Amino acid sequence: MAINHYFQGGKGIGNAAEKLLHEDIIIESLKIFGQDVYYMPRTLVNRDLVLGEDTSSRFDDSYLIEMYFETNEGFAGENEIINKFGLEIRDDTTLIVSKRRFEEHVANTANLIATGRPNEGDLIFVPLMNSFFEIQFVEDQEPFYQIGNLPVYKLRVTKFEYANEQINTGQELLDQAEDKFTLDTLQHKFTLESGQVALTGEGSIVLEDYHDYSTGQPALLMMETYVATSNLATQSPYAGNLDLNQAAGYDTANDLTDDILDFTERNPFGEVDE
After folding, report:
1. Strand partners of residue 80
2. Pairing of strands 152-159, 205-207
3. In this predicted model, what pLDDT tens digit does every residue of 15-28 receive, in sequence order?
4. Is residue 58 part of a domain?
5. In what order do the strands lie in the sheet with 220-222?
């Protein structure tokens, strides 16, 4: 054999017991020097097959696990920069998590898009900073085969920019981000003097109490469209439109001679005099 079989069996230095010990030491170090974070897998709702993105994705679960900040001297990346769009904050860092611990506490129970490993696009919430980080890249071969083993994931993450995603994990600390920053109109309601709540309907703002007691029709607070009646006699006598129509000559539908202005379109290709 080309290798020394006293030190390895052909699959890298170290036997199975040594690899397991090495992994146990790494897990213990992460528990000592790391921090508790919440791993939040992304759930796709309406994925764009062309662009590969989902603007209406949501986060329904969270999993508590320990991770270690590799950049312990501060955030990496370009930090605060000013461009033509204004101030932009790019706080990047690298988190280290044990593969075995991730498999036990997340991968075996979570509904991951790519099963068995952390996914790009998933979120990590750090309670110490009260901040969300989005995974940009998952490195699974660093450190490179120490004693023939790959025991950790290195997660390249950046500060998450909230864009109205639904966050319903059951953890109040996490879910309050949606309540604070969402621009979803269904999250904001009008309360009337009667105590009824107005909701956003199909083009109109309607009442939760969906009855007009006089007509039985939906009670609309604001209508999207309004169609005026063509019969002047049925219009309100208290409005000034009757007087204005009479003065302008529009009170007689068949006689246009006394109309001040006639906007009737005679030629769809132009206003050529007959």
Report:
1. 89
2. unpaired
3. 778 888 889 999 99
4. yes
5. 190-191, 197-200, 205-207, 220-222
